[in-house]
Amino acid sequence: MLEKFWGEHDGVDFPHVVLAQQFSREQLEKIFILTSILKKEIGNGKMVEWLYGHIVLTLFYEPSTRTRLSHETAALRLGARVISSENAAEFSSAIKGETLEDTIKIVSAMADLVVMRHKATGSAQKAASVNASPIINGGDGLGQHPTQALLDVFTINEHFGNVDGLKVAMVGDLKRGRTVRSLTYMLSKFKGVEIYFVAPKIAQMGEDIKRHLDENKIWWGEEEEFQEVALEADVIYMTRYQLERAVSEEERRELEEVSKSHIMNRNVANDMPETSIIMHPLPRVEEIRWSVDQNPRAKYFEQAANGIYIRMALLLMILNPSKAVELLNSN
Ligand code: CP
Q1: Domain 146-304 belongs to what architecture?
Q2: What does the pLDDT read at residue 200?
């Protein structure tokens, strides 16, 4: 039964989406099948009423283009109504000192599901622990961004037809990037994947993630240069250096300097294997040159568009699981 779909993780019951590692491989496969069905059924701009009568709240304490708007588009296309606080840090009662838990209790009387982005790591779990409306984590500080990982792995699976055995290189600010943390957790569910972390020391992936890979017997390696890795990898996952998260002016300057050594340009892209792909969670700044957009390996805009269908699948599974089961069974 889909009602039991999510199981329990870290004390958080279904139907919250808070951590990439909460999903089993079987669950991921179901989500990807449903996403493909929805992409086919509703990808042509169709509107349906499968979520008619539901209200979805997007509660964003940090800026966003893709995550907030794609959840809203997904909800609207499925027939739900949307209410939004797009600058909740300033324009919600958080500014008056209201706790996140109180806010979630209050908004749960107004919305059937809350998509939340917050600057504090662990805030999604905190919001979910209130056990009110379902919470979808749209990014929590330096923690995770599980729906981004879902759309990333869906895009990889859609392109290659599988994920097992692929070589994935993550490039850039891996220390401050929540998307790469969630992506690594999710890739660890697949067999024989190899992960390269390509970053200077001040931006390398956290020890907790490397420990997780060791525990799950997933091969990983660290590199500082990425030109050679680009010759071998199936997926190059570029990320932005998150200067706004630097803890001092000195760190900010240092990050700005090292960011110049990890640029995906026309030459690096052309040298990559023909079947390989270039991904990026976006927004990009300088790390992928505009000229790469014309390269057939560039997947990042398609990747972002897939976010709408992944989020449709999640909303449907949470708010109308019987329709999700019907679609899955009819496939
Ligand atoms: N990838 C991503 O999270 O983009 P936004 O910050 O625009 O939501």
Answers
A1: 3-Layer(aba) Sandwich (3.40)
A2: 92
| Mean pLDDT of successive 10-residue stretches along the chain, which has 331 residues | 41 72 92 96 92 98 97 98 94 90 97 97 95 95 97 98 98 96 98 97 96 98 92 97 89 89 94 97 95 98 98 94 91 81
| H-only helix segments in the chain | 25-42, 66-77, 88-91, 100-107, 123-129, 146-160, 178-187, 207-215, 227-230, 249-259, 266-271, 300-319, 321-330
- What fold, for 2-145+306-323? Rossmann fold (3.40.50)
Choose the residue to mutate in 282, 285, 287, 303 for probing ligand 1, maximizing ligand atoms within 8 Å of C-beta: 282
Given the CA of residue 304, which atom of ligand 1 is nearest to it?
1
Fold match between 2-145+306-323 and 146-304? yes
